[in-house]
Amino acid sequence: MHVERLAKDKVRIFVSYDDLEERGIDRDEIWLNGKKVQELFWDMMETAYAEVGFEIAGPIAVEAFTMPSEGVVIIVTRVPSLPGHGRTADDDDAMDVELSDTMFSSFVFSFPDFEDVVRVSYALYDYDIHTSLYQYNGKYQLFVDEDSVQEDEYDSIWSILHEYGEYSEVTTAVLEEYGKCILRSNAVQHIVMQFPL
């Protein structure tokens, strides 16, 4: 388990499949929100507090992303309480966190140069995946709909994306709100057709 502080109110936690196996949790079981998963979550929060001083004080948002051969990335964000809706310590003790409700069926990779986007598009062209392209934070962000990825092609697609870009923790909601949408759908196919290598 590895914890990284992303901002004052946000941490990223990487849990390897070996970590899950040691706890007797199957890969698919992590989305079922059983007792073992609840225990894992609170262990993660204890580790986050011990390593980077991140403490839960009120409501939180949890996003979880699967990485095909490495493990699970979990991003925990403290959300400001609405007036009159604050939590007490007793509420925190009783709080249930359901990862299954917060999992996003997508992932995003960022690329500093458009040339990298063109190269990765050619490498991904033969895969029938749904993609969108955004510009955000001075980089190109390629959104991949995870539901469109065939299970036996997952590792190959992930490796190709890693070769040309880097995994981005930005969510599609942020891209829609603050980013500039360049290609809404079939981004890979459009780029290959319009930009010859």
Automatic annotation (TrEMBL):
Belongs to the MecA family. Signal peptide: none annotated. It comes from Alicyclobacillus cycloheptanicus. This is Adapter protein MecA 1/2. Transmembrane segments: none annotated. InterPro entries: MecA_C_sf, Neg-reg_MecA. It holds the Pfam family MecA.
